[in-house]
Amino acid sequence: MKRRLSGETALAAAWTLALVASLAVLFIGEVLGQMPCVLCWYQRAFMFPLAIILGLGLWWGDARVGRYGVVLGLGGGLFALWHLGLYAGFIPEPIQPCTETGPSCTDENQLILGIPIPLLSLMAFALVAGLSALSLKEPRP
């Protein structure tokens, strides 16, 4: 018999991922001293509320809070995808949101364990959105 992921478990996993991602970017910025670029700030604007909203939904037992996880996850994922396109060189230089004197989206500081930060962000948003969507499905008998 196949076991399905329960809505509450999926929501807890989405919240955990959003919380870890939020704490990780705070660590990168505040402890390691890496200044975020404009696109990083936009992505943070989507990730930080996810950790709060999904956590409150779990606390209050609101099974429909996953709706917000899907919307915020997709919104943040779009910025992460754009950021990844910039990092990979698919987006032309004039569109680049980074200044010459500020942080750069294309240097080696954008790697964690050899993986570009924009790709990690995209994966986090995709997983949060997917898990949030799974939390909305009613279990079938």
UniProtKB/TrEMBL annotation:
The chain crosses the membrane at residues 43-61, 68-91, 111-136. Its main location: membrane. It is found in: Membrane. Keywords: Chaperone, Disulfide bond, Electron transport, Membrane, Oxidoreductase, Redox-active center, Transmembrane, Transmembrane helix, Transport. GO terms for cellular component: membrane. GO terms for biological process: protein folding. GO terms for molecular function: protein-disulfide reductase activity. Signal peptide: none annotated. It comes from the Bacteria. It is a multi-pass membrane protein. InterPro entries: DiS_bond_form_DsbB/BdbC (IPR003752), Disulphide_bond_form_BdbC (IPR012187), DsbB-like_sf (IPR023380). Belongs to the DsbB family. BdbC subfamily. This is Thiol-disulfide oxidoreductase C. It comes from Jannaschia rubra.
